[in-house]
Amino acid sequence: MSAHLLSVDSLSRDYVDHLFDVARRMEPIAQRQKITRVLEGAVLGNLFFEASTRTRMSFHSAFSRLGGSVCDTTGFTFSSMAKGESLYDTSRVISGYVDAIVMRHPDLGSVAEFAAATHVPVINGGDGPGEHPSQALLDLYTINKEFERLDKKLAGAHLLLTGDLKYGRTVHSLLKLLSLYSPMQITLVSPPGLEMPSDLIDRAENAGHRVQQRDTLQADFSDVDVVYATRIQKERFTQEMVEGFSLSSDFSVDRAFLDQRCSPHTIAMHPLPRDSRPGANDLNVDLNGDPRLAIFRQTDNGIPVRMAIFATLMGVDEIFDRDLREV
Ligand code: CP
């Protein structure tokens, strides 16, 4: 494991198991039942050059709950990159100000380029259509917790990933992460042109998973344990693609889909944001209040998992719970 978290490629099964153990122990701190100051005096640079609600705020919250403080910058307008400063110079300068960096950037590979110029740990908060490793970690942590509640096992499970599998960086990282685990069945359902990249499918198959591709949700998914829906990432489309694209209701994950095509114990996940504008069918609001909808348990899990990421990257994973204070 490198000092950075740039891609799931750098993660081992042992590291992920340890991270999830640390995240479990972080939960009382994440919920402010207990307080630690283990990162007191440390500063996080939270650099978001692309829109975000969850990743930006949950990393900020996670670092604060460990006792650290946070410097934020959002968008290019208020950064000197707007004056032509390079990623290299920006990275080298900021690494003199902070002890860790989370960065989101619209360009594939940009966060790795940034990390190459700094000596402090860098976490990839999303690099264009590339990866979003912390999201995959909180997704798998959520699946494990949901399966524990439902008395299910990850080994042999059936996961359905649907939506924009081409540009959706969360599903790229998740499929890579699942390749560290025991064989399972993975069904990929996407509109034509938005299929999962073939190298990621090959990797999952080489890991022993049975992978099937389909182009509609109008089928029997009664043995599916998890439906993981994603938003169509139109911001990554060319103008020509935007004009020619309309999402068929065949891809709608809604109450009727879960009731009629899945099982009563199928859970619905989504990295969020879901698109609530007319014509968007990624995950319908008619599932709000349905216990099968795990999306807000998923966002809640983002805090302890991101706290655990900081703890492991900054070397306090063995000591953070030595001097906990009760609230
Ligand atoms: N899941 C996720 O990355 O959400 P944000 O874009 O709001 O950070």
Short description:
The protein is α/β, with parallel strands linked by helices and 327 residues long. It contains ten helices and eleven strands.
Question: What is the β-strand count?
Answer: 11
- What's the rounded overall pLDDT mean? 94
Strand order of the largest sheet: 8-7-6-9-10
User: Which small-molecule ligands are present, each listed once?
Assistant: phosphoric acid mono(formamide)ester
**Order of secondary-structure elements:** HEEHEHEHEHEHEHEEHHEHE
**Into which percentage range does the β-strand content fall?**
15-25%
**Count of helices?**
10
Describe the structure.
The chain has 327 residues and is of the alpha/beta class. It folds into two domains: 8-131 and 302-326, Rossmann fold (3-Layer(aba) Sandwich); 133-299, Rossmann fold, CATH 3.40.50. Helix content is 35%, strand content 15%. The protein contains ten helices and eleven strands. Strands 8-7-6-9-10 form a five-stranded parallel β-sheet, with helices on one face. Strand 7 (185-189), helix 7 and strand 8 (210-214) form a beta-alpha-beta unit. Helix 2 (54-65) crosses helix 10, helix 5 crosses helix 6 (169-178) and helix 5 (133-150) packs across helix 10. The longest helix is centred in the last third of the chain and has 19 residues, at 295-313. The model has no long low-confidence stretch (mean pLDDT 94). Phosphoric acid mono(formamide)ester binds next to helix 2.
